[in-house]
Structure formats: structure tokens, C-alpha cells
Amino acid sequence: MPRSELVHSKKRLDRLRLYPRPVSIRAVQVLTVPWLFGLPRMRRYDGYALPWTILLRDVPGTGTASEDLICHELCHVWQMQHHPLRVFWAWLTKPYEQNPFELEARRAVEDTRMP
To answer: How far is CA 91 from CA 24, 65, 73, in A?
Structure first.
């Protein structure tokens, strides 16, 4: 993935003050792994964030891998940079639609989307 897409998503998130420090993309890598999203529990997703890694179904800029999706997943990386245990606990205990970190990432995309 061109690093510029990740940098652009970081600039979007830098406009928000959700956490004390801006998101660090220094060690973040973006991987396209379509086979992963064919697994039963992953079919509902187009992207997935792990600490320092964003996994995408499609190559950035094609299919479902939009700029908004990359921004959304980078927000999850940011959340994990500040509250890794809380993010993991919420993932274990909250339904996807009610997970506060999921809702926050959706709001971050909406709040930073250019008209």
C-alpha cells in the first residue's frame, strides 16, 4: 500500500482530540489478506485492526478498501495504542454494534470526512 494513504488517514485523525497523543503510524503496516475474510467469523468485515497492523480484504483504493475504511481501522490502532486492554475487553464483552470503540471509530470517520 502506498504509505501516502496511511499518512492521509493519520492527518484526518490528527484533527480529533480523542487521546492524549496523536496516532503513531511509524510501525503500522497494512496488509491485504483476502483469504482471511473468507473465514466464517471474518466474512462480515472488510478490514480488521491489530496492534500496529491493518488487515484489508481488498487492495487499498479498490473494492471495499476505501480511504474511510483505512481511517476507521487506523482509529482502532490508535485506540489500542492508548487502551489495549480496554479495547480487547470490549471486543470480548460487547456486541459489535454496541462496542464503544467501534462506535468511536465510526464517528471519527464521519467527523473527518471531507464534504
So the answer is: 22, 22, 14
